[in-house]
Amino acid sequence: MQEYFTPVDITKFSGTNQYIAASYGKLINVYTENEGFPDLENINIAIIGLHEDRKALNNEGCGLAPDYVRENLYKLFQGSYSTKIVDLGNILKGNTIEDSYFAITDVLSQLLKKNIIPIIIGGGQDLTYCNYIAYKSLEQTINIVTIDSCFDIGDGDKDLNSQSYLSKIILHKPNILFNYSNVGYQTYFVEQNAIDLMDKLYFDSYRLGQVRENLEDVEPIVRNADIVSFDISAIRQSDAPGNGNASPNGFYGEEACQIARYAGLSDKLSSIGFYEINPAFDTNKQTAHLVAQMIWYFIDGFYNRKQDYPIVDKSEYTKYRVSIKDHDHEIVFYKSNKSDRWWMDVPYPINHQIKHERHQMVPCSYRDYETACRDEMPDKWWQTYQKLG
Length: 389
Hints:
389 residues, alpha/beta, Arginase, Chain A, 10-stranded mixed beta sheet
């Protein structure tokens, strides 16, 4: 794995000589020329910088982001937990973009097999495709959640880029995608036929205004993800100017940090990427600093995981049964006594072979339970039931 990486030159970072013992600059085992490549034994999280930005439309230069984020991340302090984190350095651009894709996919695949969570920093969001392909080696279907102002479906017949990678994922064979969810799309950036396609595929999409009204509803969406891909353009330009496609509207910085923490808290999530950060458009390294704080919140969430998913020992949960009038289905809910989080048990349709057992327990909220108690079928339940068939 080491052959793919170049070491981090921390001597270029401001405040290097002033790192305090409890700061990440002292606690993270960083690949440098002096220290060498980190040992991956008993490691929880690996930070990876990506320089590949040739397919980042209107945002070339985002490959320079990793070290800007690191400079701010290393100055932050860990919480009341002991971290086991390494920084593997940067994967530089290959001679061809295919070379970059191969290297990134191979590295992520090796880390996933070791149960190490990659935190990906920098490059275009098309690299989400590499993250997806890395899961093929695990031989299981997965869920992807993107925090993005649009769906990035693009034209599936054209080359892969930051605005078309989702179509490449959907069309890839063999298909290991069970569910895709978009959080925070802005309607004026999305064609109606793209919204219709989301409905046809039983995928989930949530408008910016919808999720900002009840940000807590994002938690079960992210809790269902294996991969979270965060396009920094989903954050409003005033909070994150470092992006060539920045928009006046979007999430506030503190909301982005909260979503990152939700991702860290998810027992199911096994990789996360922060893409499209462009230092050329940044103001006083504001965006890099925000992303560093988002990573801090992700790490904080990870070390506060409750280990209550997937459900194994039913004695640790309170079970609720709700019968829906005019429907053939009884909905079974489970509430964790440890975290107060909710799940719905979606049964397989009769006479169908079990293919996606790990997706049968669907994260939900108390709001979904209330919906069922009103004799209404929760959207999450119905969408999952359709896909299980």
